[in-house]
Design goal:
By secondary structure, this protein is mainly beta. It contains one helix and 29 strands.
Length: about 425
């Protein structure tokens, strides 16, 4: 898709008019590693077989505090080691055997990266989605993997302490970057990949971390959110968004945990990574689609979806329009009310918001490109309406729609997506 990370500008609405249905999140995978769940996983290594995966490891007995999301009395997790004797790069990945193919889902896991000393472990933990269950993950020497995963070190000093991988098969049209994405890629949100950067220094101060900018000898909760509808993946540490990027296709497949030692220095007995409280939840769709859609020149009806979340205070909400004609210009519109006007101004579609509505939600006019889609991140604090901009508040319901140019034969016209009503909380 194009323009998925475009900077937001504006629109707003007031007065809740309809209530969007609310659905509970559905648990797909839940493992506290207390019950000896090794049989639920497939272990894949790079062929060196120079490490171990210790399921049901009692890390509390080893002097490590309980993970932040553990139930009272829980003490076990899975401990991974790599390059313990051979003196060569080593990578290990454990895949949960459950295949995840939800339209929207969230992976959450607690991670502890253990070491003694000041730096130099060269070890990188990773958390992944959409894996094939047979390919180990590594962002360095070699770059290898499937689906998408985030990789990070507990002791900094690598120059690229936080990196993410996107399978080349999932590279969006128009993006030349694939596999391990460069730290200049827009998905890094300006944070870069070095733990010495301001974002990571603030995220992991020392103390409590052993080395500022890295999650060494502390627990950090890693979240990976996948939106297969809009093609957006987000990576967060302790509730703070670190990276957010686009992808084509879907990240269906197996979730993974892993460890890689990128260089030949042999790890010590004190160098290992713990994982605990793995949880994968299917997320409900955002908003409710409404209004009849007229097929455009592609033969399909344009679809409007939303990603992010509906907490107005978080201001993390995006729209994406799919199944559009290629290289078509369009925009997002929105109103505090639903409406229905067939063929407005000679359009072949149906206008489903209004009668007063704001144009240019998310920054203005977009082009669907070769992918036949466009998207925008909105600014809920200043969304455009018919009378100017106002802030979306908890309890407000907003009605959105995509409006785009099209052709019927040789005649220029326009068309619309479905409407989408969203109640914010």
């Amino acid at each position: 898709m194009t323009n998925r990370i475009s900077k937001a500008l504006a629109f707003s609405a007031t007065a809740a008019i309809a209530t969007t249905a609310t659905f509970a999140q559905t648990t797909l995978i839940s493992d506290g590693f207390e019950l000896g769940s090794a049989a639920d996983y497939t272990v894949v290594d790079d062929g060196s077989i120079d490490g171990a995966d210790d399921f049901a490891f009692d890390y509390v007995a080893a002097g490590i505090p309980a993970a932040p999301r553990s139930a009272a009395g829980d003490t076990l997790g899975v401990r991974m080691t790599a390059n313990t004797s051979a003196g060569s790069a080593d990578a290990r990945t454990i895949f949960h055997n459950t295949v995840v193919n939800a339209d929207r889902y969230l992976l959450t896991v607690d991670v502890w990266m253990n070491f003694v000393g000041t730096s130099g472990t060269t070890e990188f933990g990773h958390v992944g989605v959409g894996g094939d269950g047979t390919t180990f993950n590594s962002v360095f020497s070699p770059i290898f993997g499937s689906g998408a995963f985030i990789s990070f070190t507990g002791d900094g000093g690598s120059g690229s302490d936080f990196r993410w991988f996107r399978d080349s098969a999932n590279t969006p049209i128009g993006d030349t970057a694939s596999t391990t994405l460069p730290n200049s890629h827009p998905s890094y949100l300006g944070h870069g990949s070095n733990g010495s950067g301001a974002f990571f220094q603030s995220l992991f101060p020392s103390p409590p971390s052993t080395i500022a900018g890295s999650p060494g000898n502390i627990w950090t909760t890693v979240e990976v959110e996948v939106d297969n509808g809009c093609g957006v993946i987000s990576f967060s540490f302790d509730g703070q968004l670190a990276f957010r990027g686009d992808f084509s296709g879907r990240f269906d497949g197996q979730v993974s945990l892993g460890l890689a030692d990128a260089f030949s220095s042999v790890g010590t007995a004190d160098q290992f990574t713990l994982f605990d409280n793995l949880l994968v939840e299917e997320l409900p769709a955002i908003g409710t689609a409404y209004c009849a859609v007229v097929a455009n020149s592609t033969g399909m009806g344009a679809r409007l979806l939303a990603s992010g979340n509906t907490a107005a205070a978080d201001n993390d909400f995006s729209l994406c329009a799919l199944d559009l004609p290629m290289n078509s210009f369009g925009m997002f519109v929105a109103s505090a009310a639903a409406d229905f006007v067939a063929n407005p101004g000679g359009s072949t579609g149906n206008l489903c918001v209004g009668p007063l509505f704001g144009r240019g939600v998310g920054g203005g006019i977009f082009n669907s490109g070769m992918a036949g889609s466009f998207a925008a991140t909105t600014d809920l604090a200043a969304l455009p309406g018919a009378m100017g901009t106002t802030a979306v508040m908890a309890g407000d319901t907003v009605y959105f729609q995509a409006w785009f140019r099209d052709r019927v034969g040789s005649a220029a016209t326009s068309n619309f997506s479905n409407g989408l009503d969203v109640t914010f909380n």
